[in-house]
Every structure is written in structure tokens, then in C-alpha cells.
Amino acid sequence: MNAISKPLSRFDEMAAVQPLVEVNNVTLRYKTQQMMITATKGVTFNINRSDRFILLGPSGCGKSTLLKAVGGYLQPDEGEITINGRKVTQPGADRMMVFQEFDQLLPWKTVLGNVMFPLLNAAKLPSREAEQKARHYIEKVGLSRVADSYPHTLSGGMKQRVAIARGMAMEPDVLLMDEPFAALDALTRRTCQDELLRLWEETKFTVLFVTHSISEAIKIGNRILLLSPHPGRVKAEVCDVDKINVSDGSAAKLEAEIHELLFAGEGH
Amino acid sequence: MQPTIIMRPEMPDTTGKVDLQVRLSGLELFWSHGAVRKTFILLVLAAIWEIYARALGNPLLFPTLTDTLVSLWASILNGVLFDRTLASLKILMLGYGLGVFLASALTIVAINTRLGTDLLETLTATFNPLPAIALLPLALIWFGLGIGSLVFVLVHSVMWAVALNTHSGFRGVSQTIRMVGRNYELRGLRYVFKILVPAAFPTILTGLKIGWAFAWRTLIAAELVFGVSSGQGGLGWYIFENRNVLDIPAVFAGLLMVIVIGLVIENLIFKTIERATIQKWGVQN
């Protein structure tokens, strides 16, 4: 149980270093046709440089809504989100999103064109430089062979890898990933997870990753924020997840512990 | 007990020797071209025409295909048909271009503001059912006999169809693509032209095709009404003129020309655009 602590103590511990992303007491609400729904209530966490930070919880805990708020797509009702000390008010290329949906690639552009597009339009690089950079990152995800293909000719796993390459090529402050592997088959998902970790080893980028799979959270993350549903609140934070050892069964144990925590009091 | 993995010895031998790809035969390849199949249909229709007209034996009511083609050839040789067609196409381009431009402007306003959306919806609901040709008498009073009236009815026939399709195309762009565009900090016109237009292109192209067909029909119909005073009438006027002198093969030649131009624009211009865009992108087969 020692890996799991309440988020507040962790917050104090980190206060000395300026975190990259600060989510401070954030309450998010959104409107449907009939009513106002509170997605998250008073959520606080912060992400340091090179963290692989996971938002984990059952559906309805507002984890995707939180990610969209960090992405700048919706404004908190209360509290604030800052990145490098700047308040988040709108979407921006300093926070590149990787979505779950395969249609996030622009169908009218090739793989290379898709990766170059934000480099040209948001980062405003000259085209030669953009192409060089795009090719570099396409090679990193092992897709050089299909650089000139259109997205509709790629498999789901390849599309997600292009989306990751596109996000990484922008070298954003933080990469926001909204269940990027959830729509993949189990085998491809494992390959993609391994690849993401390998890429992280190379460049140590910062990731905020949303998932509802406990095993994926343990595999990918170094810190996991556990959220409870209706409305989304922070239940606990798991730190130093990467110290876990898969072979000696401690990963399975942690998985069981997290499951217990998330579904405690539900009669499971 | 440990699970065991048993390797199959036959595995490495089978690679390379399997017929993974089999070439299609020449005839199959030939028939797989849409153009070939469509040409075949056209030839059958032409044969039916020829046989029926010969059986009827009344060139004043229904001339044979050969008579029509002879008349068409003569008109092409003496340059009359060519001039008439050119006159029609010139006005068509003017009206079509202006209509598409106005439709784009209206749609861009509509996509960016709620009042603009209401404006577009109200205007299209009001004017789309109104046949352009019904406005011609009014147009003649406003703009007189001449290009102005024709362009006015053309704009009316093109604009609403194109605006309606473009707008519904914009609204059909997936939320994910929109979020991607905003992630790239694209706003305003750059957002419209770099994200919305390509993403909605299949629907926009449909609108352009419908608009083109409306415009062509409206123009020919309008030219049947007048064209005399503008001196250099178009194809519609050519048809009307020849009917008056009971040169029925020439009437048919004019009608054939109207069809041929329709086919050429549809199959050459629009098909080429389709092949270079939505088919290449895999958003439509």
C-alpha cells in the first residue's frame, strides 16, 4: 500500500519545483440539451517535466473532460489550469492532442503531409525544415515505408502511430493522449504501448494519458491519478509506478489494489 | 505443468512458392473500366435510336441518328454551332463562377455566426424551391434583354444548391477533425480553407455538380426564350431558330450538343477532380 498516497502530501513535496502543468481545484461543467452536468469537482494535480501522468477511472469520472480542459477546449467553471505558469484559455500547439478516433488524421494529406501540417501552420517552420523533422519522427515510429501513403490505406495501429509522430514532431510542452490505443486490437495495443515507452526513453517527453484500463495505466505511467465518478474527484495518486516489477507479481498486486480502491464500496 | 510450443518443420518451405497475386485477363481488365462500360451503353442507345427512326420513317418528327450527325457535322464545319456553344459556355462560366463565389461567401458567414446560419437556412428554404426560369420575366424587366438577365437567373440557379450542400458538408465535419484544426491554432478563414473545405469536399463537390447541372439547364431554357436581340445567341437559341424553320435534324443536333457538353463536363472535368481528390483520399469510392 506504500506506493499509494493521498495527492495532497505529494503536492507539498513537489512545491519546491515548478511543475509543468498545474491543475488547481478545477470544476468542469458542460451543458446538454436539458441540463448542466458536473463532470469533475475540485480536481487538483500537477505534472512535472518528463512525467508519464495517467488519468485513470471508470467511465463518467470526467477524465476525458479534464484532458480536453488541459487541451483548452473548455474552460473550468472554478479553479484554473496553467502550463509553464501561463493560464490555459484556448487550444494551442504547445499541447498536442492524440485522440482515440482513427479519423484524427486529415484524409486529404499523406502521412508525411499530416505530420508536416502543424509544423508548417502552427510552428511556422520553412517547408524544408518541416519535412526533415517530419521524416525524422515518422522514422522513429517505424513508418518511413508508408510516408507517402494516404491514411485510408493504413491500419488502425499505423494511424495511431502517425498521430503520435505528428504530436511528437511539434515537440510540445505536453502530449495529451485520450485513450489512443482503446480502439486497437489487443496485440496491436501492446505493440503500441511498448513503442510509446521506447520513444519516451529516447526523448523523455511529458505525457498526460487518459485510460480506463488499469493494466495499461501501470504499464505506461510513472504516476497515476485515480478518479472516482459522478462527479469526477481525485481519489488517490499512485507514485513511482515505474519502480514496479512485472515479473515478481508486484504489478498484478498493484493492479488488484487499484481495482479495490476504484470500486470500493460498490459491493464487488 | 508448463505449456509447450511445438515448431512446425514445414513452415519455411512454403514461402515464395504460393500464388499470392494472379493477373486478371485482358478482357476482364478492359471491362473493369467504367468508361468502356458506359460507351457500350451509349452505343446500344444510339443503335436503338437509329432503328426506331428508320422504322418510323418521319424525319420531321424524329430524324435518324445519321441525319442528325450529318447536320451536326455541317453546323460544326460552317462554325455556327461552335459559335453558339461558345456563347453559351461563356455566359455559363460567368453565372456559375459568380454563383459559387456568392454561395461561398454566404456559407462562410453562416459557419462562423449563428445569425449567419439562420440567414442561410431561411434564404435557401425560401429561394431553393423557386425555379430560376420563373425569375426570367422579372430579370428581363430589371436587366433587359442580354447577358445581365441570363447571369442573374444562372446565379439564382447555382447559388442555393451550392450553399446548401457546402453548409451541410461543413456541419458534417467530424468533431475530432475540428479539434485537430483548433489544436493547430487555425482560426477564421485559415480554419475554413485548410480544415473545413477539404474535410467537407465530397459534399461540396456534389453541390458543385448539382449547381452546374441546374445552371446548364436554366441557361438553355432561358436562351429558348430570347437570344435574338443579343445578336449572338447561344445553343438554346440555335435550337429554337432551327425549330422555326423546321430543320428538325438541326434541332436534334443542338440537343445532342447540349447533352455532349453535359457529358464532357461531368465525365472529364468533375471525374478528374474526383479522381484527384476524394478517390485518392479514400473518403469516397
Structural commentary:
The complex is a heterodimer of chains A (268) and B (285). With 268 residues, chain A is of the alpha/beta class. Chain A has two domains: 4-94 and 172-262, P-loop containing nucleotide triphosphate hydrolases (Rossmann fold); 108-171, no CATH class. In chain A, 35% of the residues lie in helices and 24% in strands. Chain A has helices at 7-14, 63-71, 111-121, 127-140, 156-169, 186-203, 214-220, 250-262, and strands at residues 4-5, 21-31, 36-47, 52-56, 78-83, 86-87, 95-98, 174-178, 207-211, 223-228, 233-238. Chain A has a seven-stranded mixed sheet, with helices on both faces. Chain A has a four-stranded antiparallel sheet with strand order 3-2-5-6, covered by helices on one side. In chain A, helix 3 (111-121) packs parallel to helix 5 and helix 5 (156-169) runs parallel beside helix 6. Chain A is globular, with a radius of gyration of 19 Å. Mean pLDDT of chain A is 81; it is low at 7-15. With 285 residues, chain B is mainly α. Chain B has one domain (60-281): MetI-like (MetI-like fold). Chain B is built from 13 helices and no strands. Chain B has helices at 26-31, 34-56, 65-77, 80-112, 114-127, 136-143, 147-171, 175-183, 188-199, 201-225, 235-244, 248-276, 278-281. Chain B is flat. The A-B interface holds A 71, 73, 90-93, 95-97, 99, 101, 103-104, 106-108, 117-118, 121-122, 150-153 and B 174, 176-177, 179-180, 182-186, 190, 194-195, 198-199, 201, 277, 280-283.
